[in-house]
Amino acid sequence: MPSFIVKIKLTYIILLACFSALGQDKSFVNMPGKTRIEILGADELVYKQAIGRYQMCKGNVRFKQGSMFMDCDSARFYEDINKIEAFGNIYIRQKDTLNLWGNAVEYDGDTRQAKIMENVKLSDGKMVLTTDQLNYDLVDKIGSYNTGANIVNGKDKMYSDLGTYYSRTKEFFFKDNVKLINPDYTMDCDTLRYNTKSKLASFYGPTYIRSEENTIYCQYGWYNTAKEISQFSRGSYIQGKDNKLVADSMMYFRNTGLGEAFGNLHFEDTSEQISIKGQYGKYERFTKTTLITGKPLAIKNIDGDSFYLKADTFLDLADTSKSQKRMLKAYNHVIAFKSDIQAVADSLVYNFTDSTVGFFKNPVIWTDSNQVSGDTIMVYRNQFGLDRFEAFANAFSIEKDVNGLFNQVKGRRLDGFFTEGRLYKVEVDGNGQSIYYALEEGQKYYGVNEVVCGKMVVRIDTAKRIRSITQISKPKATFYPLEKFPKNKSKLSGFEWKIIFRPTKSLFIN
Predict the structure, then answer these.
(1) Would you say 35 and 68 are in contact if contact means Cβ atoms under 8 Å apart?
(2) All domains in the chain, ordered by first residue
(3) pLDDT for 252-276, tens place per residue?
(4) Which residues contact 112 (CB under 8 A, 6 or more apart)?
(5) Which DSSP letter does residue 26 get?
(6) Is 263 exposed, middle or buried (0-12, 13-18, 19+ CB in 10 A)?
(7) 3-state DSSP call for residue 215?
(8) Which residues pair with 438 in a beta bridge?
(9) Is the pLDDT of residue 98 over 90?
(10) Reduced to 3 DSSP states, what percent helix, strand and coil does the chain have, rounded to the nearest 5?
(11) How many CB atoms lie within 10 A of CB 95?
(12) One-letter-per-residue 3-state SS of 231-299
């Protein structure tokens, strides 16, 4: 018979004798609800009462308690108090729910608590956690650490100083110096709750999510890493290279590219020098379109001056083609203000490339003492400011002179031209009509001109007086002394002086 077998047998005989001499204490066995730890095997078992009441187990040691199995190189087994101190190549498994590795373990069989140390690794089959020390409750299946841990779950990699893992629910609770790394982004936060099964991450406290496109900040939110859906609130903002969006809360659907912002949103675009406020926003990443509602207000820097815009709805369109054109559309109850032009309309289109503004459906614009209306009005700018306007269909221009009389021009189309912000010429094309009061150098009138012709050109001097009207096609002109001018002809058909609707800056500044 081999000597090591003889040695094991002798050890068992000695152990039995020692336990008999100790009085064969059966109190633990009779404790309800508790199971004793069993030795399934070892190359060598030694019991020495002189060095302590434990068995020294060496070589291929295996223990079992209920559904838990433990392997190790060596162990001290305190059978009377149902405890183990194990060393070297620790491997603990519990059915198919848990695998634990380490270099040393202290295990209490009564409380089913394990303290695993040195090169610790925990896995549930998909997730792998590594740390220096882990406390694990085999009853409730809860593991915790305070020495820092790295976790890998699919493409997600995480780290935190403190943490707890709930094996039953597959949920982690991370605290302090938390970092989540994904191929598309990184997350840094104070506290993170993460479910490895549902892939739902909930974050608390100051949180930063960084990607190549932008940085997201919030103090509360959640992110479903499987469905690519996220929510951010409490001081939330998204910071891009040239823009920043702040709102009470945000939702983002990464797969569809849909982003939504709710409550007190404020969008800043430094590249275009525009700021937009509102209560609700929706962004389509793939089409690069942004919708903003809830009493939106836009402020755009143009030539060092502020252009204010209000409407029921804004739609910001970025051209995805090579031309990279961008437009801002405003719908319903449009109100616009700039120091050199004001307007109201049903809708508006602003072209960021050349600062062209189109006003549609019953628009009215005011420049200095002039009012222009029509079915559609286009306003163009150059490097010096206002360049010209085009008014189409039922076009009508009214200028109120210093004495409160109204100079008027109307036609199918009006083209007005500016110099240094002053309207100096109006061209009329189609069914042209004009009434203007001819002023002398002072404030005395020398008559009233009534003109009807197919085309005309009206020139205005620096004192805002009509100096000449050039009649081009089938002209018909009548000059009246002021006192003989018929009152029923003082206003052309369609005349409406809408000065009460002229916007002021106070409408845009709270």
Answers:
(1) no
(2) 148-217 (2.60.450.10), 262-356 (2.60.450.10), 363-494 (2.60.450.10)
(3) 998 898 999 999 999 999 988 999 9
(4) 65, 68, 137, 138, 139
(5) -
(6) middle
(7) strand
(8) 447
(9) no
(10) 5, 65, 30
(11) 9
(12) EEECCCEEECCCEEEECCEEEEECCCCEEEEEEEEEEEECCCCEEEEEEEEEEECCCCEEEEECCCEEE
- Tell me, letter by letter, the H, E, C secondary structure of 48-99: CCCCCCCEEEEEEEEEEECCEEEEEEEEEEECCCCEEEEEEEEEEEECCCEE
- Residue 500: helix, strand or coil by DSSP? helix
Can you give the length of the chain in residues? 510
What is the residue whose two structure tokens read 């252009």? 307
Tell me the longest C-alpha to C-alpha distance in the chain: 144
pLDDT band at 503 (very low <50, low <70, confident <90, very high): very high
- Confidence band of 323 (pLDDT split at 50, 70, 90): low
Q: Please name the amino acid found at residue 241.
A: K
Take residue 140 and report the two structure tokens written for it: 């409730």
The conformational region for residue 154 under phi > 0 = left, psi -120 to 50 = alpha, else beta, is: left
What pLDDT shows up at residue 320?
A: 61
50-69 pLDDT tens trace: 566 788 999 999 999 998 99
| Type of residue found at 386 | L
- Between the CA of residue 335 and those of 271, 276, 353, what are the distances in Å? 24, 14, 21
Q: Do residues 314 and 308 touch, judged by C-beta distance below 8 A?
A: no
Closest C-alpha among 427, 423, 424 to residue 409: 427
Do residues 139 and 112 lie in contact, with contact meaning Cβ atoms separated by under 8 Å? yes
Q: Please count the helices (runs of H) and the strands (runs of E) in the chain.
A: 1, 38
CA–CA distance, 47 with 36 (Å, rounded to integer): 18
Per-residue model confidence as pLDDT tens digits over 99-111:
999 999 999 999 9
Q: Which residues contact 13 (CB under 8 A, 6 or more apart)?
A: none
Chain position carrying tokens 């790394």: 181
Given a contact cutoff of 8 angstroms between Cβ atoms, the answer to whether 31 and 25 are in contact is: no
* Predicted local confidence at residue 2, as pLDDT: 39
CB 45 within 8 A of CB 15: yes
Q: Read off the amino acid at residue 326.
A: R
Note every long-range contact of 216-220, with CB atoms under 8 Å and residues 24 or more positions apart, other chains counting: 216/250, 218/250
The pTM assigned to this predicted structure is 0.78
Cα 146 from chain centroid? 33
